[in-house]
Amino acid sequence: MKNLLLAICLFASIGAIAQDTTKVANAINNGNRQPIYIVDGVKTDSAKAMSINPKDIERMDVVKDASATALYGKEGTNGVILITTKAGSKKNQPVYIIDGVKADVAKFKALNPDDIESVNISKDASEAALHSTEGKNGVVTVITKAAAKKAKEKSKN
């Protein structure tokens, strides 16, 4: 009786493992589920993105679900891989400030437009002075609705 019970448990375990392995293999082999790749703000194919030397990458971000679709439309359905190279990060980028905190272009692009209260774009000498040499290409200041609400509540107290 013990041997029969042991054999049933063993077959059940093998069946579960085989089923999980099949699911993983199907997910890997499904060619329609590729994300899009954006390198330094330019859409590229996966081969070019994967050929970048890891030492040249300053930052990688993954955008998925509704954010990816909102930013890149139907192409973003399977996600977006944002790669910023060290060379690309220094190209005429403005400084991004989101709710008082310095951010990169990927975080700026990942913002949901419906969550934004206001945007201020400035490219004058005073901004460059405030943000050192980084501000020479301008400053984009974003206040989200959540931060505006917090500031309003704080000012009431």
Topology:
Blueprint: H1 2-29, E1 36-39, E2 42-44, H2 46-50, E3 57-63, H3 65-72, E4 80-85, E5 95-98, E6 101-103, H4 105-110, E7 116-122, H5 125-130, E8 139-144, H6 145-156
Parallel strand pairs: 1-4, 5-8
Antiparallel strand pairs: 1-2, 3-4, 5-6, 7-8
Low confidence ranges: 9-30
Tally of strands: 8
Strand composition percent: 25-35%
| Envelope shape | flat
How many DSSP H or I helices?
6
Main sheet overview: 4 strands, mixed
Q: Using the CA coordinates, give the radius of gyration.
A: 24 Å
Order of helical and strand elements: HEEHEHEEEHEHEH
Percent range of helical residues? 40-55%
* Number of structural domains: 2
Structural class, by secondary structure, is alpha/beta
Order of strands, widest sheet = 2-1-4-3
Mean pLDDT: 77
Summarize the structure.
The chain has helices at residues 2-29, 46-50, 65-72, 105-110, 125-130, 145-156; strands at 36-39, 42-44, 57-63, 80-85, 95-98, 101-103, 116-122, 139-144. With 157 residues, the chain is an alpha/beta fold. It has 2 domains: 33-91, no CATH class; 92-146, no CATH class.
